[in-house]
């Protein structure tokens, strides 16, 4: 009996760890067989360009979730970054981008301060910025959409490096950086320790507050980068719609990718695959002319199924 | 010694009644500064606007006291309105019960998944946020179809009828709040809600029906969100498809402002009602200051939420 039980347990464990990869492969095979024009360069470009901003946000979210937190403010930070860009574009694209990233850094550090030093629960701490941040972005922009004409800034959204769109290259590099950060640095080890057991981490003398503030700051900066890239692609600053509901997409991708909401574990490659999976699901549903309503319900089912498989048993 | 006690008592009063004190101050100042604030018309409008949110936040209060969270209420609110508007062609009873049954059923499934499979409330209700929106789009021809309610139907009366100028939804919300307070403080179910959120492991060991309690609160939250949607549809005379985006966050914010702890085990219905009052008075005042556009509302709400949670945290030390 033990042999069968062990075998079942091993199989469940394997599915928990690798379910997202299996799902991506299955979905790709399905599309190769049944979707017209799937295996074209143009299609891959479109899919990757659409997935890049979500991936960048999801990377930061994965780190935050690894500390047993959550950051609801990422969409609002994207909107703030979008609102900042036209204000400073006159001084050159580099200045505008740096200002936007600075705002993201400040927002993230503020979240981290509330969570680490004041001791507010992550959901509430970041909820305040979610509620207020987009309003602030709209106040800054006077509630208007601003068309952007700076060619150097717009090139960020249209140009290629070695045949790959710039935003995709940036997302890829960031994914590698975050993977190295979690797996190869002391900071990464401390992050996982804080998420696994905060009390033990404190008692072990880890700089818990510094790690938490660092993680939320990284998440804020990544959200701002995503907002800058999405703005350049849109060729307009649109704080009303920029990053709307992005927090939900990012959390979904992270959780589907196998990072547990209970913290103590960060799966970067899983997060990348989670973003790819959700993007593929959406693309598949659209290409087969399923309406938005059905698409949303199927996404809901996928989220529940993924979390059900990955859940920790008591 | 007695000074220490007095300070402690004062801190406790401030902590528990902070939102109430803030509300009284806000109302008093607004009354003096803005001549139109105190007018009967404005107060009626204020109460009516608050009543829909109060009904949703009532369910959220129960959920949060069990240590959970319900992100699906915004979508269920919109879905309830659309179902009520669609159902109104078959009469009053269908218009009222259809949204309650469907939204209640979705809430029941939320509770079932959370209680029986050990999945996080956050993610389960996030999925049903998507699902309910999808269902709404499916029955409204992808959002293109807004069902109208016949203006002379009895159902419209439910949303637009008044007593002394005060709309029926205000009385419905008030009655539900009283009922909710009694259930929370005077019944076994209420005790189980507190026990589940306070210390779940101990509650299980003490024989508290934790799973049933969780299923109960999520079912209640879904049903109330559906009811709020039905009342809104009756008031607007149509099932508007685009409402309710982000309403779950408003509901969470007012519950937290009202002093209910997100970690569970503590909270009051009265606090939630006061939280609703505060947010609505702030919005109303910003509308009175004609030069500020509505974007300031969310900035002020966000700052206010922040101040409240920071104060709560500091006072609890």
UniProtKB/TrEMBL annotation, chain A:
Sections of the chain in a coiled coil: none
GO cellular component, one term: plasma membrane
Chief site of localization: membrane
Gene Ontology MF terms in the entry: transmembrane transporter activity
Domain of life: Bacteria
Bilayer disposition of the protein: Multi-pass membrane protein
Regions crossing the membrane: 20-41, 47-65, 72-89, 95-116, 123-141, 161-181, 208-230, 242-261, 268-287, 293-310
Matching CDD domains: TM_PBP1_transp_AraH_like
Protein's cellular compartments: Cell membrane
Keyword terms: Cell membrane, Membrane, Transmembrane, Transmembrane helix
Name of the protein in its database record: ATPase
Organism encoding this protein: Lentzea aerocolonigenes
